[in-house]
Structures are given as C-alpha cells and as structure tokens.
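Risk mitigation, structural track. In case the binding assays with iron/sulfur cluster fail to produce interpretable data, a predicted complex structure has been prepared as a fallback.
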Amino acid sequence: MDIGAYTSRARRKKKVLSDFLDKLDEIVPEGMPALVEKVDATVWQDIDCTTCANCCKTMTPTFTQADIARISTHLRMSPAAFKTKWLKKDDAKQWVNTTQPCQFLVDNKCSIYDVRPADCAEFPHHNKKPFDEYNTTFKNNLVHCPATLTLVERLKKVVERDFEW
Ligand code: SF4
Ligand code: SF4
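Fallback model:
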C-alpha cells in the first residue's frame, strides 16, 4: 500500500471531509447505520491492513487496566514492569505508548495480536453505533487510516447523491 499517496490525499481532502462529518453531527440521513455498513463493506474489499499498519506506526492505542493485565501476563512480566518499560499517562490520564511505532509491531505485524489492546481490536471503529458519535475520532483519523479516509470519501459521495440535506 502506498501510504504516502494516502496521506497526501488525506491532507488535501481533510477540510472538505471534516466539514462533511461536522454536517453529520447536525443532520443524520435516514438509514445511516445500514448505509455505513454497506459502504464500509466496499472499503474492506480495497484496503488490506496487513500491507499498511499505519495506525501502529503513527498512533498509540489506549491501554485499559484489563489490557495491561492481559498483555503483561502474556509477556510474563508484572503490570508495573510493563508500564515502566513501555507506557506513560497522557493528558487524559490514560495509559498510552511512550513511542511510535508501537513496540509490538514486528515485520509490519502485531506480535501480540491475540492479546492486543481492545482499542486496537476495535480500530478503526467504523462499526461503532451511532456512527456520528465518533465523527471527531474519524476526523482525527483521516490522515492516519486509509480505510477511514476511503469510508468517509465514499459516504460523502453517496449521501450527497441520494439524500436531500
Ligand atoms: S498492540 Fe499491536 S495492533 Fe496495537 S498498536 Fe501495537 S502493534 Fe498495532
Ligand atoms: S486500520 Fe487503517 S491505518 Fe490501521 S492498518 Fe488498517 S487501514 Fe491501515
């Protein structure tokens, strides 16, 4: 996957796509959940996360206490040692990675996939409901995630073609 091309496209279209997401905050077209599901299915026909991993390279997940307990057990470490080695608290007092790319990304793959943080398992959150409650997240992720960029581009096209709003 050509991440550079996606990033350039995202930077170029960020304003217009963010404005679309802002409008979705105000007006939600009828049948939006089904529409998101349908359009999202087309996104995953074209996007292959195993050739990307840009989220793991440029962002950090948040680690819940359950995540920390599960992953540290898997790594045969104490939760305290795990935090000291890799995590810090962010401004919202949540545990996050100290550095990017994520320390668990090895050969472009997650080396702790089966026990990865819930935040990673749920990323890029396209199936969250209601979709429009995550508009801020999607706006932030446009420049990081080719799948989110593609989803919002396609949603914008369909909504503006099929709905009066
Ligand atoms: S834990 Fe795995 S999936 Fe999550 S950011 Fe790190 S490498 Fe990526
Ligand atoms: S979720 Fe998005 S950023 Fe992460 S690997 Fe998949 S396409 Fe890339």
